[in-house]
Every structure is written in structure tokens, then in C-alpha cells.
Amino acid sequence: MRKLILGLAVTLDGYIEGPKGEYDWCFTDQDYGLNDFFARIDAIFIGRKSYEIAQQHADSNNGEVVPGMPALTEYVFSKTLKSVKEGAKLISDNSIAEARKIKEQPGKDIWLFGGASLTDAFMKEGLVDELWMSVHPILLGDGKLLFNKQDHRTKLTLLESKTYETGLISLRYSIDKD
Q1: Ranked by mean pLDDT, which of 41-50, 117-126, 164-173 comes out on top?
Q2: Rounded Cα distance, 108 and 85, in Å
Q3: Average of per-residue pLDDT across 16-40
Q4: Which CB contacts under 8 angstroms, 24+ apart, belong to 75-80?
């Protein structure tokens, strides 16, 4: 079965974006393991808000959402969108069941790109298999937190850690499934 990997940048105080949605604090001066990550995946799960932000970003950056990102099968999870760009697949009903079906299909792993609501729902349902956090050396003090309040503990096993000279620390954890 394919793994669903939540991979994103986070501040040391746990924020994934600033109070006005800004992510200008994310380091972009080098690869930080992205190319190795891209080799592991062939699909992306993305929520409506993140999809719309990604499309705006791509429109002003020669079609690239993330520099060097290969062509991926995009699954957009939204109850409000009526259509998505050509080649992307809109999932508007039974998102948990559909995500499970997609994970069971042959292929490489899947990137859970965001957003917060989709991440929260998939974490609660036990669909996320791995966390790959790029912890940036900054304290924002406010913004959108990575995780909402959970009703249970989630045990993790460290798979890999890497420290960069910029102070960024890359952490990979598997989620222990009890």
C-alpha cells in the first residue's frame, strides 16, 4: 500500500503560515531534500484553499508550484469547487473513503500537501503514514498551527534527521499504528 506523507515547512513554534497567510519565512536557497522526496511520490493530495494558493503561485512562476516538482497526479479535495485544472482530479464526496481507495492503488507514495482541514481529517482517520517536517529556525508567534487539538496521542518513530548549515532541520517520522 502507498504511504501518505504529510510534508511541509513549519516554524519552531509550530506554525505553517503567518497570521496573514504568509510563508515568506520558508527557506528556498537550496534543495533541502526535496529532490529525494520527489523521487518517492507520484501523487499529491491537496485541499481547496491550498490548491487555490498553489495555482496563484504557479501562475506567477512559470507554472511551477514548487521548483523542480515533477508532474504528479493531483487530487483536489473540496466540497465547494465545481472544477479543477486539466489533469487534476476533484474529490468532493466521501473524501476519507476515496483517499483510502487511492492509497490502495499501485504507485509511489502520496504527498499530503495541505491544508489544515484536510490534514486534520486525515490524521484523525489514521490515513497519514509519515511526517516530513522542515523545521525552520524562526518563531512567528502567531499564524496557522500545524496541528489542531487532537483527542488522542500519536506515537512517532524517527526515521531520519538532517541538520543544514542554515539552521533548518529536516525530520522524518513514521506514525506508529497501534
Answers
A1: 164-173
A2: 22
A3: 91
A4: 75/43, 75/44, 75/45, 75/46, 75/99, 75/102, 76/46, 76/47, 76/48, 76/51, 77/45, 77/46, 77/47, 77/48, 77/118, 78/47, 78/48, 78/51, 80/48
Quick one: which of 21, 22, 27, 29 has its CA closest to 9?
Answer: 27
Cell numbers placing 29: 536557497
Q: For residue 100, with 0-12 CB atoms within 10 Å meaning exposed, 13-18 middle and 19 or more buried, which class applies?
A: middle
Question: Is cis: bond before 7, omega within 30 of 0?
Answer: no
The structural domains of the chain, ordered by start, are: 4-17+29-175 (3.40.430.10)
Q: 87: buried, middle or exposed (CB in 10 Å: 19+, 13-18, 0-12)?
A: exposed
